Amino acid sequence: MHEFPAYRAPSQREVTDLVRANPFALIVSGGSAEEAPVATHTPVIIEHLAADDGLVGGEMLGHIARKNPQWRSLRDGQPVLLVFSGPHGYVSPTAYADDPNVPTWDYAAVHLTARVTVLDDPTESMHVVTRTVHELEALESTAWDPTGSLPTFERIVGGVVSFRFAVTDQRAVFKLSQDKPADVRERVVAAARARGCPHGDVGGLIERIGAGS
């Protein structure tokens, strides 16, 4: 992903928070002159951060269905791309006070390059899926306790293949109307909320990040 200097992430904390709050990622692998890359939508969660609390140098966990053939093409140490999408939304020129103008799209996204390790073992996969449940339940207002369902997990966990991702590179774009004056940003936020923010609260990001740029 190309990083635009004007739309750099405001902080590593914002990047990490976006990844944690939007764990339904894309695992992208492969690709050649003859074949397109392969991608799978699946939860990918943070196992641990690097010593500096960044993502680069840290590890992520994910899993896909064993019936999905993507895992068979992966070898340990192979680079893969992990794509995380944050809130986003269309920006109509009706939010601008001047004319002529053009529409755009405000969004936040993070791409992580990582070296994959395939964890084709039920014990390792149990760790990955239970850690995933723990992380995702932490996003709920009332967390579910999976203890009583662990025997069910153990019975069906052979149906997935899990992965550990060692993050080697990070790219992030937070394009949130930073180039517009405060009154325009306010109208962009109002329009997003009137529309219902179908792709996450991009208005909240604009208020918090766009104004501070």
UniProtKB/TrEMBL annotation:
Gene3D superfamilies (alphabetical): Electron Transport, Fmn-binding Protein, Chain A
Xref: Pfam families: FMN_bind_2
Stored InterPro entries: Split_barrel_FMN-bd, TR_PAI2-type
Protein's recorded name: Transcriptional regulator
Species: Microbacterium paludicola
